[in-house]
Design goal:
Number of strands: 6
Low-confidence stretches: none
Shape: globular
Number of helices: 0
Largest sheet: 6 strands, antiparallel
Distance between the termini: 30 Å
Strand order of the largest sheet: 1-2-3-4-5-6
Order of helices and strands: EEEEEE
Mean pLDDT: 78
Structural class: mainly beta
Length: 79
């Protein structure tokens, strides 16, 4: 798995944020207090967003919808 290749100086953390339809569970890979977003799952709708990149420069690379549709994104953030 990809996590086995990650530096032991980094740690994986998760937190539930928001309320109602926007309630979501976020996964971050952290070194100290800061961390890049890896995955964001919306609890009510069931969609999951996957990100790549350093903190502040994360870009969306894939979305898995609750109905099974998967959307892939290519290119730089904001392009």
């Amino acid at each position: 798995p990809w996590l086995a290749r990650v530096s032991p100086a980094l740690r994986l953390s998760s937190a539930v944020e928001g309320a109602g339809e926007r309630r979501r569970e976020g996964w971050r890979l952290r070194r100290g207090e800061n961390g890049a977003m890896l995955r964001l799952r919306f609890l009510q709708g069931g969609s999951v967003q996957y990100f790549e990149g350093e903190r502040g420069a994360e870009r969306l690379v894939r979305v898995e919808l609750a109905n099974g549709i998967v959307q892939h994104y290519e290119g730089e953030k904001g392009a």
